[in-house]
Amino acid sequence: MLQKPKSRGRAGSQPEREQDGGRGGGGAEEAPSTSRGAAGAGWQGSRRAEASPKAGPRSQKQLELKVAELVQFLLIKDQKKIPIKRADILKHVVGDYKDIFPDLLKLAAQRLEYVFGYRLVELEPKSNTYILINTLEPVEEDAEVRGDQGTPTTGLLMIVLGLIFMKGNSIKETEVWDFLRRLGVHPTKKHLIFGDPKKLITEDFVRQRYLEYRRIPHTDPVDYEFQWGPRTNLETSKMKVLKFVAKVHNQDPKDWPAQYCEALAEEEARARPQTGGPAPSS
Amino acid sequence: MADEKGTLRGDVEEGEEPVVAVTGSAHPGKQAEEEEEEPMKVEVAVGADACSDDLSCGEADIDPSLLELADEEKCRSIRKQYRQLIYNVQQNRDDIVNTASDSLTEALEEANVLFDAVSRTREAALDAQFLVLASDLGKEKAKQLNSDMSFFNQVAFCDFLFIFVGLNWMEGDGRELSDYDDNIALSFWETVQKEATSWMLQAEKFHFIFGSFKSEPSARKPRLEHRKKVHRMEENGDMPTKLRKLDLNSNQEATEKEVERILGLLQTYFRKYPDTPVSYFEFVIDPNSFSRTVENIFYVSFIIRDGFARIRLDQDRLPILEPININQVGEGNDPSSHCRKQGVISLSLQDWKNIVATFEISEAMITNSY
Question: In this predicted structure, which of A36-40, A188-192, B220-224 has the lowest mean pLDDT?
């Protein structure tokens, strides 16, 4: 997807007039031909760039480069799983190309989906923060190929999510710790795998927007409650979490009728075509 | 309600046992009837210590001063009863919330009775405090009601997790995971992780399959800055990433570090075996890695260039490395006699293998730092 110097070699053999035409734009390297075979369009682009100032229409190649940068930026920023702010994108990658930012984002999203199978979604409508989610359903064999991906926090997360959902979509922090203590995870004790579990659950997961952490008013001593965060709703669903819990119990999800109904209702709501779908909005 | 509470507090005298702060000023939906009656009584009681206007006194003919004294006792006892009630309810909080008992209703009724005798703001404040507590508990009870429908047993969930992972110990003696081996804990979490990830659409964390070229294993940092000058791409030709200026510097530092490290190794050897030059090949060759060998040759060439060692051919016409002492540099060696000497060493993969075999090199003299 990147421009190889081969194209420049080809451009060298082309008549001089094209080079002159291309020089009007930002840089001297504006070789009109692209390896994508859209030589005609590229040439047209460079002709347009003839008399334009730096902020004018850019050539195909420049656009390609920008999109590639954006894709890389998004992939790397996603490593920490903290939502990517639009401001960061504009500052570090887009810069001068701010006017075509929506197009760039759309192209980058297409690229991510087509090449990596990741979807770029806005965390919440109008929040101007983005995350990447997988469009591919996980497969059994993936686990071996994936190899070591750092600490296995997803297991802990899923357990907490399960607790929250099964207890009515909200659970007190004290209850969470009562449960986790039985699994050897303490809020104050250093954990072999998770390090500082309290920080992991109350800060990291919250920053990654998997969980919401709110103070319960009028409690003494102060207590907090956990709920699902927006990322959780995008990456998984009530039905999936219920199925996870059911699988652990070796039972059927329908054995918990209230939760099952709730999960079913959510499935139906999702199946209905939404008006403001999770696409990167300009 | 907040204003009234403020005036209530204003009337509370100092020096008495501390009254627990009335925290709940916003429980509008759960107010019982007493609360509604209260404003009326509060407005009456504010600013008037005498009970002459008080509706609850009943005995309007008695001398006011006598009335005050008698009521003081009564009020104290009311306050005591309230505090007792609050204390009881707090102590039995779990019991009240979790069981299907009527204890909350009973407590409310008791408060109701007490309130009939209340005439002053202090007692009314205590009553309000009790009400906040009661309504909190009421909310808890209501929540319990919902989840009882499809009761989710946490303890069972915990046990089932263990079974799911394969650790069977349903003896019910409450053993915890922490009591067991670290390895068991690790495998527990890995198994759970494997199952959990199959229910989530998490995007994989980006990483290079074969790692990066850095000499130290470094944690991946998000590459934030990209050069915006497009013409730089010309220079970097094939490179898909745009290098920051710092990157080049850090590469140089790595080289220098390596050179220093190898120099240290060399000097240690010379200290250990003084006056014994080391065979060049024995020093640089790594029998396990051709690429490391080439790197070693590269670094040693810096050492020679900087004059810390000397390479020459011994009687067998094989290259050896000799130390150069600092004093040697001063005397004897006339700088003008230093003509540029240059040597080029070429080593192919086959050569390297031959050397390893011929010299019978079994392990590298230059150990790796990583």
Answer: A36-40
CA distances from A205 to A85, A200, A208, B124, B202 (A): 17, 6, 5, 45, 14
Percentage of chain A with pLDDT > 70? 72
Contacts of B189 in chain A (CB under 8 A): 152, 155-156, 193
Residue appearing with tokens 């509470």: B5
Mean pLDDT throughout B236-262?
64
Query: What secondary structure letter does DSSP report for B238?
Result: T
Tally Cβ neighbours within 10 Å of residue B210: 6
Residues of A in contact with B196 (CB under 8 A): 154-155, 157-159, 244
Residues 6+ apart with CB under 8 A from B228: A95, A96
ipTM confidence: 0.71
What type of residue is B160? F
Residues in chain A: 282
Record the pTM: 0.52
Cβ-nearest to A132 among B195, B198, B203? B203
**For B40-72, how does the pLDDT look when each residue is reduced to its tens digit (9 = 90+)?**
444 444 444 444 444 444 445 555 655 565 678
Rounded Cα distance between B212 and A185, Å, is 35
Query: According to the model, what pLDDT value does residue B48 have?
Result: 42
pLDDT of residue A223: 87
- For the stretch B296-343, pLDDT in tens is 999 898 888 888 888 888 888 888 888 776 555 544 444 544 566 788
* Nearest-by-Cβ selection for B202 from A181, A192, A235: A235
